Amino acid sequence: MAETAKILCPQKTVLIPDLDAGCTLADDCPADEFAEFRNKHPNHFVISYINCTAAVKAQSDLICTSSNAVDLVKQIPKDRPILFAPDQNLGKWVQKKSGRKLTCWPGRCIVHETFNEEALIKLKLKYPEAETIAHPECPTNLLDLSDFIGSTSKLLKQTEKSQATTFIVLTEPGILHQMRIQMPDKTFIEVPGIDGCSCNACPYMRLNTLEKLLACLETMQPQINLEETVRLKAVKPIENMLRMSK
């Protein structure tokens, strides 16, 4: 996301508290391997989820978010094959919702991959009145057990407008804090990871601590810098997204 800010605002200073605070989706889609994948699928319209590197954005025709992916895919001419990257789980869900066949890069988010299906079923049996809500980066078997699927912002809105008072939440658990602040009278239940671990908490997000943020602001380092040739290629699909989302 820091790279995206720099792509859109090259004249501004963009800081990040920890350069290692990346994303498994971005790590799962190296630009050189993605280029080879694209070459194997010529004439495909390339849509990349915003959680990818600037170098992958630069190889894309259109960038999407989990909020607008379905709508954007529906706008692509039906005679044009689509390549979707890097999250295959999101791609499968978008394919189902849009009715368009997608060729997906095999990337995944470790947070959403580690939720335990057995633990989810046990929670649903324990709290039969609860509404299960999930981010579309979750695997299909978990989405099939969910009552509502949507982006982080849509999950938050759903908990606000739903008549349910208890929610089983399948996404990065950091959002539960905001849900509990905004709706203190409702109950939000975190689903454990495989073998009962708490590994569904994103380790990358946890690298950005308050201490590192303070040091970052004091030193104005580390800064995000991009090669201008890459930035100019990467900004076009983002601008396409903004234009098509209006």
Short description:
By secondary structure, the protein is α/β, with parallel strands linked by helices.
* The top level CATH class name of the largest domain: Alpha Beta
Named CATH architecture of the largest domain: 3-Layer(aba) Sandwich
Classify the helix fraction into a percent range. 40-55%
Strand order of the largest sheet: 2-1-3-4
Largest sheet report: 4 strands, parallel
Regions with little confidence, pLDDT below 50 for 5+ residues: none
Radius of gyration, in angstroms, nearest whole number: 19 Å
Number of strands: 8
**N- to C-terminal distance:** 21 Å
Explain what the structure shows.
The protein is α/β, with parallel strands linked by helices and 246 residues long. It folds into two domains: 12-109 and 227-244, Rossmann fold, CATH 3.40.50; 115-196, Rossmann fold. The chain is built from 13 helices and eight strands. The protein has helices at 2-8, 24-27, 31-39, 54-57, 69-75, 88-98, 110-113, 117-126, 140-143, 152-161, 174-182, 210-219, 228-244, and strands at 45-49, 62-64, 82-85, 102-104, 131-134, 148-149, 166-170, 187-190. The protein has a four-stranded parallel β-sheet with strand order 2-1-3-4. A four-stranded parallel β-sheet has the order 6-5-7-8, with helices on both faces. Helix 6 links the parallel strand 3 and strand 4 (102-104). The chain is globular and about 55 Å long.
